[in-house]
Structure formats: C-alpha cells, structure tokens
Specification:
The chain is of the alpha/beta class. It has 2 domains: 11-163, Rossmann fold, CATH 3.40.50.20; 167-352, Vaccinia Virus protein VP39 (Rossmann fold, 3-Layer(aba) Sandwich). 37% of the residues lie in helices and 21% in strands. The protein has helices spanning 11-17, 29-40, 68-74, 89-101, 119-124, 126-135, 139-154, 158-163, 167-174, 192-200, 215-223, 271-274, 290-295, 298-302, 317-328, and strands at 22-25, 47-49, 59-60, 63-66, 79-82, 103-105, 182-186, 207-211, 232-235, 238-239, 244-250, 256-258, 264-269, 281-284, 306-310, 333-338, 347-352. The protein has a 7-stranded mixed β-sheet with strand order 9-8-7-14-15-17-16, sandwiched between helices. A 6-stranded mixed β-sheet has the order 3-4-2-1-5-6. A 4-stranded mixed β-sheet has the order 10-13-11-12. A hairpin with a 2-residue loop joins strand 3 and strand 4 (63-66). Helix 6 packs across helix 15 (317-328). The chain is globular, with a radius of gyration of 21 Å.
Length: 353
C-alpha cells in the first residue's frame, strides 16, 4: 500500500539532522509560521536573505537580512528554506537556479487547520489516500497525486517541477465549456476567475453566480465585473453548508477564514439555496471551507455539475474532498493537476461525468 510514496524522511527531520547552517529565503507571515514550526523541532535558523529586488539591508526577527551573494562570501555549504510562495515564471526559475547549487526545501505548511503533512500522517490515512489514488481517471492524475504527496512530505521542489501542467491543458482538455454554462464561482476574489471564465467561453454563457466574503475583495470584484450584464449575480458573503452568519478573521492577501473567535461575522450561503438554476460548473477556492461548501452544493453536484476544487488548504483535502464528491455523485471522473506554483498551492481537483 502507498508504494508511490518514496519520501519517508520529512523536511523537518532533514533540517534537524543535516548539520548545516539553515538560511530562510523570504520574510513575512510565511517565514514566521515556518520558523515557529522549526523551533518546535529544535531547529535553529542561522539567518535570512532576500532577493536582490527586495533587499533593503534591514533586520527581521533579530537577524540582519542578507543577499544570497553575501552569504556565499563566507559559506560554501548551507541549506535554503523557502518561506514565501512563488507563482510566476521568472521567480520560479530563480528558485530552481538556487536549488541547483544548494539544498533548497519548501516546507509544506497548511493554509488552514493544524498539523503537518508527514509520512506518519500518510500512514494514518493510508486507506483513504490509496483509495483516491486508485480512483483517479488517468495516469497523469496518479503521477501528479504521487508527486504532490512526496513534495508535501519532503519539501523537495523537484516533485512539483515534474508534475506542473500548463493552464491551457486544464481548460482545453479536462473541463470543456458549452455556450450555456451556469457557472458558480465560490471564492471569486477580485473577479479574476470570473474574467477567465468569460474569456474561455467567449462571453457565451447562461449565468454566473460569484461569491466573495471579503468586503475589500468584493469591491474589486464589482469593479471588475460588468454590473449591467443581467446574467451575472454577485454575493458579498461566504459559501457554507447552510445559510446564516459565520465568524471570520481577515488574513493577509485574499484570505478570509472561518474562525470560532473571528473578529467579525459575515453572511454565508448554501449554493443549493442561493442558486435556483442547476449549475453546470462550480469552482471552489474558499480558504479551507471547501468541504462545507460542497455540502451546501449537493443538489448541483448530484445533477452533474463539473467541479474545479482547490486541494491544498487543509492537509486532509488531498483525500477527503475527492471521496466526499464521489459519495455525492459516484459517476464523477476525478482528475488532479498542479499548475506553476511553489509550494503546492495550485493543486486542484477536476471532476466531471
């Protein structure tokens, strides 16, 4: 079982036992989160460095921030821990150039929820992981699933390099659009995915329903969407298993998370209740609330809606979400693809009949 998992030593174990100086590449929330985990394992950070474009000679967490060249002046061998997300090609290539010279790890830290995706965690959930692997509809999905899991355990970016697919492959091959789509954008952010959908179907569609809980992002969604188009409806709220109100906390960037002690409440919607038409395509990227959003969209899923769903917010998403969808509609074919991103934040599930 789980013969496709090759990495048994996790990145945290490697960092603890490597015996080399460890330098964090990047600063901000990601670096703080990763360093806190490292401290819990007794792993010390030797220092920080920034890209030349961002280098300012300042300090971070009591350390002077270097450039990579400054560290190379007095050290021949060290380990680089990537502490930020890279989603565009020039930066992605730069990170790979560093990885060719030094050991570079990009630790997998869940966006939502607790715990770490380790080999032991995989063994605890081996039955579910193996079941999803066996149910995937093509060999590329199985290889992508294996590569992403091995990356999440080890932090080795080579696994992501080997399974990265172009966005055109996803839109053109896995999800085929008609001219009568009813599109639900659950987690619409600033309207970027709404615009991608409109472009992909050449503005020929039946309806769009877009949901976004952040007030700031919703203003941008409204600005970036044609309010005069009667086919489009916008909802300033979260998606959930039922209608009501939820406590949330505003995070950095696009993130609004459901938390028991949230700083405010937002309205939430069940997609089944909010959308009277039968959806034909549902995109879910809701910062860790995917399982609840799926529960609230069971009618649409049972009726055969195509699905695009993020698999990277919570550790358990890699196996719980595919199994949840199949329980609702056993006829769905499941595909997994990873698009250009470090860490595995653009690993998505695609499902259709």
């Amino acid at each position: 079982m789980l013969e496709f998992i090759k990495e048994k030593t996790g990145c945290w174990e490697y960092l603890k036992n490597c015996g080399l100086p460890i330098f964090m590449y990047g600063m901000g929330d990601g670096a703080v989160k990763i360093e806190n985990i490292m401290k819990s394992f007794g792993i010390a950070v030797s220092g920080y460095f920034a890209s030349d474009d961002f280098y300012r000679g300042h300090e971070f967490k009591g350390h002077f921030v270097h450039t990579l060249a400054q560290i190379e002046e007095y050290l021949d061998e060290f380990v680089v821990v990537l502490a930020f997300a890279a989603g565009y090609e020039r930066l992605y290539d730069h990170i790979n150039e560093i990885a060719e010279k030094y050991v570079l790890l990009a630790p997998d830290v869940p966006v939502a929820g607790d715990g770490l995706f380790t080999y032991d965690y995989c063994m605890e959930n081996a039955d579910k992981i193996q079941k999803v692997y066996a149910l995937l509809a093509d060999e590329k999905s199985r290889q992508t699933y294996a590569d992403v899991i091995n990356f999440k355990i080890s932090g080795k970016i080579g696994y992501l390099n080997s399974c990265t697919s172009p966005e055109s492959e996803v839109c053109g091959e896995l999800i085929k659009l008609s001219q009568t789509e009813v599109y639900l954008d659950l987690g619409a952010y600033n309207g970027d995915t709404v615009q991608k959908f409109i472009k992909a179907c050449s503005n020929n569609f039946r309806s769009i329903y877009a949901f976004e809980p952040s007030e700031k992002n919703f203003r941008r969604l409204r600005e970036n969407t044609d309010a005069s188009d009667g086919r489009i409806r916008l909802f300033n709220g979260a998606v959930w298993s039922k209608n009501g109100f939820l406590p949330v906390t505003n995070g950095s960037g696009r993130m609004v998370s459901v938390t028991p002690d949230g700083e405010k409440t937002v309205e939430c919607f069940s997609a089944d209740d909010a959308v009277p038409e039968n959806a034909t395509l549902i995109k879910l990227d809701v910062e860790g609330a995917e399982k609840e959003a799926i529960t609230g969209a069971e009618r649409h899923i049972k009726n055969g809606a195509k699905i695009i769903c993020a698999l990277y917010h919570r550790n358990e998403d890699m196996f719980e979400i595919p199994l949840q969808l199949l329980k609702i509609n056993p006829g769905l074919k499941l595909f997994i693809r990873h698009q250009l991103y470090i860490p595995a934040w653009e690993t998505n599930l695609y499902a259709h009949l």
